[in-house]
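Supplementary Methods S3. Complex input for the protoporphyrin IX containing FE-bound model.
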Amino acid sequence: MNQTTKYANYIPMRELNTVDKQLYPFDAYNELLEQTPVRYDENRKCWDVFRYEDVQYVLKNPKLFSSQRNRSNQSLLYMDPPKHKQLRDLVNQAFTPKKIEQLAPHIREIAEDLLDPHLANGRIDLVHELAGPLPVIVIAELIGVPTTDRHTFKHLSDLLVKGARDDSEEAFQELMDEKAQAHEELEQYFTNIVNERRQALQDDLVSLLIEAEIEGQKLSDLEIVRFCILLLVAGNETTTNLITNAVRILCEQPELQQRIAGQPTLIPTTVEETLRYYPPIVAIGRVASEDVVLQGQTIQAGQQVISWVGAANRDERKFAQSEQFVPDRKPNQHMGFGFGIHFCLGAPLARLEGRIVLETLLAKMRNMKLEAGAELQPIQSAFVFGVREYPLGFDAI
Ligand code: HEM
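Predicted complex, serialized as structure tokens:
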């Protein structure tokens, strides 16, 4: 991997150099968006794009801005057309919104099982006891792996998205080794599951992927294994942060919390507004395939381009009162799930989980708040927006 890829992916922008700014990067984004809407960062060796219109342009032009920025990872996320479309159409057959909607009652059960033991205590460690485990259990069950393995999964999938502890060469190498190891373990694990399902199909995602077919084309074992790993990487921490970020905003704005508790029909649009206002993924990477001029700047072929959806989502040119959290904002064309051909495949599942968790919380408790004395710590990652822990106090009803 060359220097360019390394820095763009793992080192935060120097503008986000304090904990306060990492916990609320949006003022910094806003300044960048106004002053240097498209700029080259020498430090990270990449271009940064901040405005809504420009971010959208990058994401909707896969010919100019390729997703093949990580050649060692051959998942859907890093593919370009036409290979991307072939694979996406195949996996789509097993991952339809209708199939996802059927999971609703079960997701509610999981949410209640995780939450109920804490109700009498009036507190819960939101990240570790609810928002973290829930998506892992849901994905593990969907794929068809035993729930008993979920701690291993959580651990391995967290490793795959982890950032380096500092920006030294050693820390970077250590991280790369850990990730490679986790990837290998997961590959072995899923290969066993695929082999088992080939012997006897079951009612699960792996079995559907084995059967999926378009014009005689089927998925290879390795493609199925890689797709399963991608679901863990792409779906777990992101959904954990969606849930935590949503609860965080409700605690930061008690009037908002009261309003939504009194009008639960607002929950789906509250989830959407969370994806705009506190998006779990704030930046999306691409690499220029040819020289492109954007806002008068020439991006050269081969250079990394980081699209700041976290900034674009607050662009006043697109969203009126962009700094306000408007729970019933409509339309709300945020880019929290990306845009274009790589638009999040798991969006229906993430929305469903977000909605069900908020419904469950607001039905069972009032006055949610961050526990007194708790200090939020940002997740150390250049692309992820979330906190490591959220000790939540409440009155059970
Ligand atoms: C792609 C965000 C949950 C599976 C993406 C992309 C974003 C995103 C921004 C586009 C990346 C790019 O353009 O390079 C999120 C957020 C989530 C979430 C914020 C939670 C709130 C999930 C879940 C799953 C999932 C639950 C699956 C279980 C995927 C997959 C892709 C993807 C497979 C790749 C699609 C492609 O390359 O065609 N996600 N995601 N995501 N997401 Fe999600």
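DSSP finds 17 helices and twelve strands in the chain. The pocket of protoporphyrin IX containing FE is lined by residues 67, 76-77, 88, 139, 230-231, 234-235, 238-239, 242, 280-281, 284, 336-338, 342, 344-346, 349-350 (CB under 6 Å).
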